[in-house]
Amino acid sequence: MKKRIQHQQLSPEQGEPVFTFRMDRRKFFKALGSGITVTFSVASSLGADLLGDLTDSKDAEDQISAWIHVGENGLVTVYTGKVEVGQNIRTSLAQIVAEEMDVHIDSVEMIMGDTNLTPYDRGTFGSRSIPFMGPQLRKAAASAREYFIDLAAEKWKTNRKAIRIENGTVFNDRNQQTIDIGKLVAGKKLIKPINNAVSTKPVEQWRIAGTSVPKKNGETFVTGKHKYVSDMKLPGMLYGKILRPPAYGATLTTVDASGARSIKDVTVVIEGNFVGVAAPTLRLASEALYAIKAEWKTTPQPSRSEIFSHLKAIAKPEDGHDKNATGNVREAFNHSALKIEQTFNIDYIAHAPLEPRAGIAQWNGEKLTVWVGTQRPFGVQQELADVFPIPKEDIRVIMPDTGSGYGGKHTGEAGIEAARLAREAKKPVKVVWSREEEFTWAYLRPAGVIEVKAGATNDGIVSAWEFHNYNSGSSGIETPYDVANKEIQFHPADSPLRQGSYRGLAATANVFARECVMNDLARAANMDPLAFRLKNLKETRMIDVLEAAAVKFGWATATPAPNHGIGIGCGDEKGSYVATCAEVAVDPDSGNVKVTRIVVAFECGAIINPNHLENQIVGSVIQGMGGALFEWIDFKDGKIVNPRFSSYRVPRFSDLPKVEAVMLNRKDIPSLGAGETPILGIAPAIRNAISHATGKNLNTLPLVPAGLNL
Amino acid sequence: MELLINKKKYSVNAHPDDQLLYVLRDELDLTGSKYGCGEGVCGACTVLIDGTAVRSCITSTGSTVGKHITTIEGVAEDGKLHRVQQAFLHVDVFQCAYCASGMTLSAVSLLEKSPKPSEQEIIRSMQGNICRCGTYPRIVKAIQEAANT
Question: How many CB atoms lie within 10 A of CB A474?
Answer without folding.
Answer: 25
